[in-house]
Amino acid sequence: MSARCDMRGVSAARTQGSRKPYEKPAVCLVPLRPEEAVLAGCKTPGGYGSSNFSTCGQFGCVLLGS
Amino acid sequence: MRNAQTRISDTRRIAIAGIGIELAASPGGPGITLEGAVARFEAGGAAPDTRVEVAWGELVDAPAGRELFDSGAHWRLHDDGGARTFTFRSQAMGPFPVRAARFSRDFTRGEVVYHRPYFAEGAAFYPLGYPLDELLLTHLLAGGRGVELHACGIVDAAGRGHLFVGQSGAGKTTMARHWERHEGAVVLSDDRIVVRRHGDELRMHGTPWHGEAALSTPGSAPLARVYFIRRGENAGAEPRFRPLAGAAYAARLYSCVFCPFYCARALEFTVGALADIAAHVPGCEVSYLPGTDVAAAAVALEG
Fold this sequence. Notes:
- The structure holds two protein chains of two kinds.
- By secondary structure, chain A is mainly alpha-helical.
- Chain A is about 20% helix and about 0% strand.
- The two termini of chain A are about 45 Å apart.
- Residues about 1-15, about 45-55 and about 60-65 of chain A have low confidence and may be disordered.
- Helices cover about 20% and strands about 35% of the residues of chain B.
- Chain B contains five helices and 19 strands.
- In chain B, strand 8 (about 100-105) and strand 9 (about 110-115) form a beta hairpin.
- In chain B, helix 1 crosses helix 4.
- The longest helix of chain B is centred in the C-terminal third of the chain and has 17 residues, at about 265-280.
């Protein structure tokens, strides 16, 4: 995958300078939140439109155990 | 709960990120309403991408077919080979599903059925109530149309799209409120944004799904830059922008995407779409102290 990043005004010094020094590959940890990603959470009226959007408003709280 | 002013009708159309959805009540079925932010996405015009009928029915414990996915909360997905069925339950309502939504495999046709014994005569619904509208859209997007991201999307006064991506608590709503004070800025949503490729251009689209600031609008803008907020870290008197590129950038996007993770083909398309964004749209981490004008600094980056 190719990528470019033209941070004008920010990385000018980097692009104008000499060749980028070698950087040792590193493991980057990216946290995941599966319950958010699969829409398993409860959305309240304050966070998701009208009361009709809220699972609490439409059917009572449907998040089992909550 | 319905507002007395709410219009109940047999057919309504909405369009989210340019994807049209028609909602049609079956004869004798429940009425259809559009409430809250989704009402702003009502649209007429061209033939919809998806048509969903709404009906009453008697729902059984589980639909036919194998269970494809269990969300761990209130919805599940079954696949019977010819169609896919989401079921939604409510402990408060009873042991049977409250609602079931059955779709063709390409999600261009569907039917939403409400469990009749649970509801009073004359009941009306927004049949794609949370989280069904998002589930439907993520399936449609993953079929080759685009991606939905956990993000706040802002269009600046020059019409450029700034996308602040992050999970819950990252500061998306705070960022939206900050930009609101800038003349000419429009917040497309403070929580959910769709990104689609239109020819040579990647555009971000507003959705009705918003965060605490309740900001959402159906507009769109060319995507100028993607930001990942780092709160309170490496912050100084001025906002700092640290470029991101390649796999690290794409991985950060992946951690904030909504897609049918249980479908290999959908996942393949989604990963490719995120790589497309990472390859063609500048990305960075932004760190700033409360009170600094991060919006002005972001606009200045674009020259």
